[in-house]
Design a protein that fits this description.
Keywords: Membrane, Transmembrane, Transmembrane helix. By secondary structure, the protein is an alpha+beta fold. It has two domains: 49 residues, no CATH class; 133 residues, OB fold (Dihydrolipoamide Acetyltransferase, E2P), CATH 2.40.50. A six-stranded mixed sheet has the order 1-6-5-2-3-4, with helices on one face.
Length: 211
């Protein structure tokens, strides 16, 4: 009878780990979650090995566009309340490359470490995370791992940047329509994680481009 109970507990823990349902924190549940994480990692590695070469989607020649202030007055206060003080989203607008949201953990100068303003996020054509596959001068190609805009997104994206990048580096890139130079470029897991803490909610709340 005890053996049957153990089997039942193991099965219940495994089901909770797979579905993400809330369950008591037991050794069986922790072990099941660890097993699921290992399995997901192994499946991702297998998928990467079996996936065909990514199709590079070149973007149109860069056309400079001015970043605009997302909100003013009462609207700005509303966004601060909504995003819990997400000041990272309220980067000051400008019309030069030094005002774009570009940050680098790989060395070189850091121009800005905040996302573009909310209007620019709503108007962005491409917002993706991915891994750098090739670097040729200032031209960088990355294999897309997750697309926030458009959905579904491209399998690869090419852009230009003076930020030093190397093959295998994870990045988050934000591109305006017709642009090759990013409005936002964030390098490394920590910077990407910092921006993703507010990016999905911002995109959900501001879907309409009103430049």
């Amino acid at each position: 009878m005890a053996e049957k109970d153990d089997v039942y507990e193991d099965d219940a823990a495994l089901l909770a780990a797979i579905t993400g349902e809330s369950a008591p924190d037991t050794p069986e549940l922790r072990a099941a979650r660890e097993d699921i994480d290992v399995l997901r990692t192994q499946l991702a590695l297998i998928a990467d090995e079996l996936a065909p070469p990514a199709q590079v989607v070149p973007l149109a020649p860069y056309r400079h566009r001015r970043l605009k202030v997302a909100l003013v007055g009462v609207a700005a206060a509303g966004v601060l309340t909504l995003l819990g003080g997400g000041l990272a989203l309220l980067g000051a607008p400008g019309n030069s490359s030094s005002d774009k949201g570009v940050s680098s953990s790989a060395g070189g100068s850091t121009e800005k470490s905040a996302l573009p303003d909310l209007v620019s996020l709503a108007c962005a054509e491409t917002i993706v995370t991915g891994t750098v596959t090739t670097v040729e001068g200032t031209e960088v190609t990355l294999r897309v791992t997750h697309a926030y805009k458009p959905i579904p997104g491209p399998t690869a994206v090419t852009f230009t940047t003076d930020t030093p990048l190397t093959r295998g580096t994870p990045v988050l890139v934000i591109l305006s329509p017709g642009a090759t130079e990013p409005d936002g470029l964030f390098v490394g897991p920590q910077e990407i994680s910092d921006q993703l803490s507010t990016l999905p909610q911002a995109l959900k709340e501001y879907r309409t481009c009103t430049p």
